[in-house]
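Recap from last week: sequence in, structure out.
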Amino acid sequence: MTLLLLPPALFFLLLGVRAIARPHDLLAGFDLRANSALSQNEIRAVYGGFPLFIGAALLLPFAWPYMLPGVAAAGALSLSGMAAGRIVSAAIDGEIGRMPLIFTAVELAGAGLLAAAWLGS
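Predicted structure tokens:
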């Protein structure tokens, strides 16, 4: 079950590193621009620091297996919430763009893997 944590952990870690290294273009596919220190700080925090620490948390059960249920549950619920927000937004707005659709699919897949790890632990 622990191996199911690896793809979502990698997603979170790569997202976090990319957000911290290149906040100015991370969200360009969402038609958002980080053209100030203030906006780059927000991207580095929400899309950088948060995912880095969630990704790290998803790796903890490899050293401490007793953490698997809690870590997998937190990750599954986080990704489910992100996908749900995108789906609600698409319903309200009447459309969803290419990048939000891709992220929704990745988030739902990751949530499914983490839910399987959580329920199978």
